[in-house]
């Protein structure tokens, strides 16, 4: 039986391997799921991805499955409820950012027709194929994440620095950062 070669970062647990094999880097076009990934990546700031992945179901439950309109309408009472929820990251600024960013997504949907159209407009719908060799350090930011971060901040999004946005772009498949020897690199790049 042949062992599949994967990106090294995912080998710490079965859950990480499943995330890598199934979701990470797959082009995503659903507004609700794009919003969910943005909020999860914002919550990862300062933490490991495995911490967020282990709490992912709790996040979906706590944030009403990331229904954008619901989250945008959260009031002070709901905010306090979230801050008491030990199943998620109880950071006041990140909770406030989720509510604020849901409101910003609604504005973007009005302007662009969808959050998806906005996100993918930065690359004209084309996946950025990076060609990372084994052992090569994956960048934490690039020109695309810098540009998108700047635009999102201008629109009032919170916690959307270039590093967070780069991780988001990797997760939703705008950037293919699987290493070249990883079986997912070939599947997602068509090579």
From TrEMBL:
<protein>
    <submittedName>
        <fullName>DNA-3-methyladenine glycosylase I</fullName>
    </submittedName>
</protein>
<dbReference type="GO" id="GO:0006284">
    <property type="term" value="P:base-excision repair"/>
</dbReference>
<feature type="binding site">
    <location>
        <position position="178"/>
    </location>
    <ligand>
        <name>Zn(2+)</name>
    </ligand>
</feature>
<feature type="binding site">
    <location>
        <position position="20"/>
    </location>
    <ligand>
        <name>Zn(2+)</name>
    </ligand>
</feature>
<dbReference type="Pfam" id="PF03352">
    <property type="entry name" value="Adenine_glyco"/>
</dbReference>
<dbReference type="InterPro" id="IPR052891">
    <property type="entry name" value="DNA-3mA_glycosylase"/>
</dbReference>
<dbReference type="InterPro" id="IPR011257">
    <property type="entry name" value="DNA_glycosylase"/>
</dbReference>
<dbReference type="GO" id="GO:0008725">
    <property type="term" value="F:DNA-3-methyladenine glycosylase activity"/>
</dbReference>
<keyword id="KW-0479">Metal-binding</keyword>
<feature type="binding site">
    <location>
        <position position="182"/>
    </location>
    <ligand>
        <name>Zn(2+)</name>
    </ligand>
</feature>
<dbReference type="GO" id="GO:0046872">
    <property type="term" value="F:metal ion binding"/>
</dbReference>
<feature type="binding site">
    <location>
        <position position="7"/>
    </location>
    <ligand>
        <name>Zn(2+)</name>
    </ligand>
</feature>
<dbReference type="InterPro" id="IPR005019">
    <property type="entry name" value="Adenine_glyco"/>
</dbReference>
<keyword id="KW-0862">Zinc</keyword>
């Amino acid at each position: 039986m042949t062992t599949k070669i994967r990106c090294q970062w995912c080998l710490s647990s079965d859950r990480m391997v499943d995330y890598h094999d199934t979701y990470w880097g797959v082009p995503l076009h659903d507004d609700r799921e794009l919003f969910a990934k943005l909020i999860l990546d914002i919550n990862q700031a300062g933490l490991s991805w495995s911490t967020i992945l282990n709490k992912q179901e709790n996040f979906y439950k706590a944030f009403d499955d990331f229904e954008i309109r619901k989250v945008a309408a959260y009031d002070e009472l709901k905010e306090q409820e979230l801050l008491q929820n030990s199943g998620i990251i109880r950071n006041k600024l990140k909770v406030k950012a989720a509510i604020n960013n849901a409101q910003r997504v609604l504005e973007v949907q009005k302007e662009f027709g969808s959050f998806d159209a906005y996100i993918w407009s930065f690359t004209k719908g084309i996946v950025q194929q990076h060609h990372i060799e084994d052992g090569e350090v994956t960048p934490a930011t690039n020109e695309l994440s810098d540009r998108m971060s700047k635009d999102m901040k201008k629109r009032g999004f919170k916690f959307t620095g270039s590093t967070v946005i780069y991780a988001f772009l990797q997760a939703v498949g705008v950037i293919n950062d699987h290493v070249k020897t990883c079986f997912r690199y070939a599947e997602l790049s068509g090579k």
